[in-house]
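User: Can you help me understand a structure? I only have the sequence.
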Amino acid sequence: MPQTARSTAFGWLAEHPLVCALAVQSTLLFNNLGLLEPWRDEALTLTIAGMPAGEIFGRVQATHPPVYFLLAHFVATMPGSPSPLWKLRFMSALWTLAATVFLDQLILRKESASIRRWVLALWVLSPCLLLYARMARSYSMQLALAMLAIAAAVRWFEQPRSMGRLLTYALAVTALLYTHFLPGIAIAGAVGVVFLARPGLTIAVRAGLLALTAAIIVLVYLPVLPSLAEGIGWWNAVAANSGHDTLLDQVIRLAWWFVSFSFGETLTTFCVVLGAILSPIIVYAVYRGATSKPAWVAIVGVATVIGYIGVSGWSGYPFTPARQLFVLPFFLILIVMGARTMRYGTIVLAAIAAVYLAGDYNYFTTTGFLNKEYCAPFGEMAATINGQSPQAGAVVALDDESTFLDPLVGRLNPRLHVVELQTVDSATPAMQAYAGRPGVIWILRHSHDTSESQWVSKLEDEIAHGRSVKQFGFLPYSGLEYRILTALRGPGQPRYFYILDRYE
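Assistant: Let's start by predicting it. Here is the structure, written out as tokens:
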């Protein structure tokens, strides 16, 4: 390409960063959508999406609004050769591209070209976004609609007496509520709090406009309003029995959330070392960015607190980033805004981008996953069991209490007898029936027994009596992970996350 043409092409891309961002993001999102096995929540999506459309609302009404699952039903059942899982992950990727357009056109439209380019670069490379955007879940749909709702709220705040802008916001947040309760409640609640605290209008006018907004939301949401009450009741019941209110849980939850948003959840030694150096800088950059007071910062800040209160009592700490994914784009904007005020801000942003590129590479090579169940090698496990079982068959005992193993079961030879180790009361009698018989028994479990009172390990000791054992390991710990395990638990730690024992 001649120099002039090359300069023109690069100049055009510099002036149209969204085009470049969408091209890079599409390459990452649509590459090998079947790379990872379906995990527990994705399998639930597939089950519900496969139900008749008329039954879906009754199935999910206490835990989830119906719109995502109805959309998933029509996508998953479309004719064509790709699997339903591939189709649903493809849909999630499309929603992510829509979120990128909303981010650029609605949130970043008033920022400088430099901030816009850096935010888009970190956004499309974010390993956190890559992980959740390729899941057959509603995360990316929530993300896109949350950005619409926040942008509509900011626009309404600029002209609070505009009925058109008020209606646009009300419909946008209602669409989000139809997709998932948590971000919808968080953003609607935050907008209400911030709007009431805004100067410029009398409190009576502010309260009246807010009441009108609430009335529109309730009216449009009326068909599923009872499910919202059921959902809140279900959340309260789960929170009361979750044990997630301890100080240690909150510390771990916040740390996981920060690491996921800042560096992703596919970390190798390079990412950890550079991430440790960058962490205090990122915290400071977020603070500096927030002090510049972008128009949305109060709404997002309050919504983040409301959302965190909801998720911290409802789900385990590894799922906090997914449930709060609507915060991620604004977190990245604050990092960029803050870094641009620093003397070496460009170097800081380049270092973050380097960690992101490494995290993306780790994702596609299935290395360094913090939540290793996302990348369980079920195909390799099934091949080992099928290939080394006698023709007469064998017993395969699976620790199903702590690991979702349906993808493995679907690959096992039909001649194999599967026993799911879900509870000690159901599993022990089933396995004791095979303990004294000749033949091959397989036991698959986590290398660290997470069952209550380690009953799975005790059951395995009983099965092992008088039998020879051959052990296989899957999903090896990295060198750094092994050193951390050794430091926390002492020497002699297992080298693999999954242990498969063959007894004969």
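Now, to help you interpret it: The chain has two domains: 3-372, 376-503. Residues 3-372 form one domain. Let me know which part you'd like to focus on.
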